[in-house]
Amino acid sequence: MKKILYLIIIFAVNVSFAQDYSSVIKSYLQQNRAQYSLQQQDISDISVASQSFSKSLQVQNVYVEQRHQGIKLFSSVSSFVIKDGAVISAKLSFTENAAAKVNSTSPSISAVNAISKAANWLGLENPSNLNLLETISDNSYIFSNGNISLENIPVELVYQKMDETGALKLAWDLSISLKDASHYYSVRIDALTGELLDTNDWVVSCNFEGSHSHANTGSLLFSNNKVTNSSRTLGDGSSYRVFALPLVAPNDGDDTIVSDPSDPTASPFGWHDWDGIAGADFTETKGNNVLANEDRNGNNGNGGTADGGPTLTFDFPFNLPQVPVNFLDGALTNLFYMNNMMHDILYHYGFDEESGNFQKNNYGNPGNGNDFVVADAQDGSGMNNANFGTPPDGGAPRMQMYLWNAPGKVLGTFLTVNNGPLAGVYYAADSNFAPPLPVSPITADLVVIVDDSGDPNDGCNNVTNGGDLNGKIVVIKRGTCAYNIKTLAAQNEGALAVIVVNDVPGDPLAMGGNGSGITIPAIMVYQSDGEALITSLLNGDTISATLENDGSGDDPFQRDGDLDNVIIAHEYGHGISNRLTGGPSQAGCLQNEEQMGEGWSDYFGLILTMKPGDSRNDYRGIGTYALGEGIGGRGLRTKYYNTDFAVNDFTYNSIKTQAVPHGVGSVWTTMLWDLTWDLIDQYGFDSDVKNGTGGNNIALQLVMDGMKLQPCSPGFVDGRDAILEADLLANAGANRCLIWRAFAKRGLGENAIQGSTNSRSDGTENFDIPVGCELGISDNSTFNNFIVYPNPSNGELSIKSRIDVGEATISIFDMNGRKVFNQTVELHQSATINASGLTSGIYLMQINSADRSQTTKLIIN
Fold first, then answer.
1. pTM, whole model, 2 decimals?
2. Which domains does the chain have, with CATH numbers?
3. Which residues form the Secretion system C-terminal sorting domain (predicted)?
4. Which of 127, 415, 557, 681 lies at a C-alpha separation of 20 to 30 Å from 855?
């Protein structure tokens, strides 16, 4: 049976075994029809597109499509949250009075004709040998690839909503994966006229430079080289030489060997399995979660893999810097490792089989399989880029990792401290004005320069410790005077070389200026490294150091994106956000202008490379290694990620001037980064990225759950509200005020206006914080003074007080922090209120008296 047909059948089977919530949802819609301005016919014909159980939220996420006379409305998916058999939250994308807006129920052109029309609109040749493979229903078919697509072509009759008029046009929805794998188009063709109505591209290209993008979801047949190993509980004995997380890339630390890194929960049979039986099926960089193969010729074929042999030992040296092809096996190993780590880590945060993750074999769990990631290393079809193509659940995504142009002069390991607690190798930038570092090492003691005014250690004035500098390597702060001035001052006192300490947290600079008369080398080191050296030296410590040219300063070699863990995490992140937003059966819910897909992807790269000792004011960038920068580089974005407004002043209004989609996304990442550090300040940092309980773990879980809860085609306010709702469901709103303060700081406050999510220019920022969430006010009471019952309730509530508090104010807030009920009662022992006017959902109830306060989660059925 053909692949796509197989996937559709599997999906139908999975849904059939899941509990049917259609009646629950229809009942909810009927009760709230007036609130949503829906006609009876708008809710009478709905279908469950997908559903999954969220372990973190303990709810069912159900995604529903609207239909008219059995024909679905394209991108009408609505998100419902069901707990204890009742709808507690709904994000509707239904069209009001759809029956009055449709133009027809019968197509004038056939499905075959629609494929030909689509090919013409896309500039493709006419399809040939186009055969009907299967009829799924009266309006849904599977055709052969027609020699225009890498995949068979599914065609279904839908209604396309027209933004300008709100009209619903009958259309054929079909998908074509171009033969050169550059795009995977989802196309709507007018079923009456054959006009092109709409296209989406399931390939997300990061377009770092140029316009290269490409994807291929074609199935790959593995050879089965079964290797007998011990049971999974003892590991499979695999080992990999990689730049292991939380390293950013080679500019952040050395490659190491990691042993048995697969997670027993997420990958119960290891990383080299396919059949679900103990023992690896492959000795190569392929398995249940990912196939990492090279694609140097850019043809998306079955390229070579790295082979670890019967012992699964993937120990391939990198020997950087050198031409990337010389470490191809190492690149494949790192790419395989990172994709598997992304799979295993995010599995613990709810990106599992039922939610649409990427696995060949789902090991009996719900969801569609056969969609492992095809990851192409050193792809030859482009440069300076990376991308990820994500079809709906059951279609295999493809990750393309490219080489990057030779960065020219880059940081190198020019400085080695030979003794003491600071011993080690340090990154530095060679200067552009002084003689280059010699190949023969310069070894001497370090000494800090001292002058007679201003900053005494910047060498900008008369040197007062000249006798101490003779025959030494002199450490000098960057200061305000020219680099050649301070270097010449040290040289005149007999210095052998100069180390300049940067005065900002970013990367060291390749210092420029007039080198006339300068005969000694000069390098610049990171601020944190240099300040540590200065402190130690001023405390009287003796430090011996060596300066030498390690060959990387004038690196002529291309950089390989396969070694940049942040870029790999970023690309994989596109698959996560596309599968979670609107449910796994969708792939087009992040096509609107205000969507935050690039933001979530940057966020994954940042949070998974956090380390103990990191600070909220660290300068973080994206793609620093690929660009030839050090760990403090800005990378590919216009601003550093940093919680300090002096470094990154993005607010909600910034999306109006930032580029789509990366600039818009970077504003969203900035907000999530602030939120993450606020949670770390509250709960601490936990280096156990899978099972930890720190603020970083809480933040990542909220972000993942928020994607499940938000509507299709979300904007910033939608994303904020979904995170608030996630905290309410999972943590009883424990972090509500912290979350509000984090978003309000960046202009996404209580009264921010989103406008249309199809526009980034019609929103209004706002910095208001809900009443009671001002700084200094705790989110929670540590002692329950009041008992609220019944809960869940129909709105008629009793409140029992442990002590006589007298007059009390009862306030109820919706999940967005808006007050929807307020009443003053006398609360001596108990009181009753009637909030039956509230719609079904989850709320927060605040009970405030003169000296007592409590916040309680409230569920209204």
1. 0.84
2. 21-97 (3.10.450.490), 111-201 (3.10.450), 239-402 (3.10.170.10), 411-552 (3.50.30.30), 592-773 (1.10.390.10), 784-860 (2.60.40.3080)
3. 788-860
4. 681
